Amino acid sequence: MSGFDFGGKDDERDERRRDEPDVFGEPDDFSAFADDDDTTMPPEPARRPREDAFDVAGFDDEDDADRTVVPPASGRRGAPVRAVARQRDHDSGDEDDDPRDFGGGDGGGAELPPRRPGGALAFGVLAALGVTGLTGIGISMHYEPSTELAHASLRALEQDQTYGVLLRTLHWLGASASIGLLIVVLLGALLRGAYRRRATFAWWSGLLVFLVAIGLGVTGELLPWTQQAVAATEVRTGIVGMAPELGEPLRRVALGGLEIAQPTLTRFHALHVAILPLMLLGALWLHVRARRHMHGRPTPGVTFAQGLVGIVVAAAIGYGAWQHFRAPLGEVYVAGDVGYQAWPEWHFLWLNYLLHEFPAYDRIAAIWLPAGLLGVLLLLPLLDRSRVRRFAHPLVWIPAILVFGGMVTVSVIHARQRPVNEPTMPYSLEWSSTERLGYRLLRQQDCLECHQYSHGGIDYGKQDHDAPKLEEMDPALSLADYAKIIADPATELQTDDMPAFDFLSEEERRALGAVLQRLGRGD
Question: CA 503 from chain center: how many Å?
Fold first, then answer.
């Protein structure tokens, strides 16, 4: 028995049915219905192939030939329509720049190939950090973390080891290149707006990598225990002490006391070779994890461009160390030898300029300005909530360019104002411990303010009145004779031009005599 009788048995019922609103189609179109006994169903309409999903937007094959096509996620209702919208946004540059959203919102679709230099340049950062880390391991095998031997151990590395100078220069250039490339990568991410939505944690972890790299540079500079190292550390720890409330306690913790001494060197050495490298590895791991979350998939293998950038950066560092540069190693620091003017690294020149030009606002320039800039960078993901991440908001990238340009300009200007320090009298690694003690006393007691020493065509110190030059000292005098002269020159030399150093111990006066003997022999 059929469900519907079309033989006209109930004309009134048919008439009423025709007059009712039709919800199925045309009023007289009942072809979609069949008798219960009729098992024949109309053929299912053929589905459009997946590759034709974008044709509903009017794309033709010729236009698609040079277009990056984003296919829809399979198994989802309305995927072709959403894919068309995503394709339109991609071609016009208005997409959200979240690769996972290209496939339906959960990573189900294909991702667009990266077209940014930041990913490849990051491998340049890794290459520079790798060079720095490997050479640092080599240097640590020769370094002695002692105020007495730190400088001598590095001088011995350069003089006694075949590639000692190259090893230190590679370490120095690698550290500088790492910070420079990190600045470029972070600036590029800032201008692209690569700190919004899923990129927020990647932005924060990148800032952490940069801060740890700066910390490695600050702690590593003190390790050679030179005049420049100690003077620069005094400036930086003084800036820390300027911070309100916790500044002075933090400064004492960093120094291990009230002044830079052996505890300071020990703490900076531990930070530089153990604590901060572990923090750097942790920050890099967090950054990789954040980028995996941002892309919604495991990190892909190294591309040709990324590997090439890493090789080029490592080769450039090696070529520069071999041909053009040499890591500076000044003279050893001696407590009490004052007057040396420190000079910061290139990335701190802008801050040093502000401290020199605006001394009345030193706390603002040294504490609040850097803290404010860092705070703005950390809060950018919360301040700029735009969904489009192709470029940063104009209120972000315009001030960023102005501030960065101002830093570069000020640094270039200040680089020409580098102070010229008086040359410091050198010493030989062949000297005995007694002679090295005498060398330190010679500088601590300002003997070079009256006695000049000439060596290798360079004059060290000043000559006052009739004071003899140090290379003219009589090597035939015994240590006991020198000790007597130093303790009471008025009696021994019959002169009042030289002050008495009777407050020095007998051992110290003999040590001064030993170095005077050495200088008199011309050794």
Answer: 49
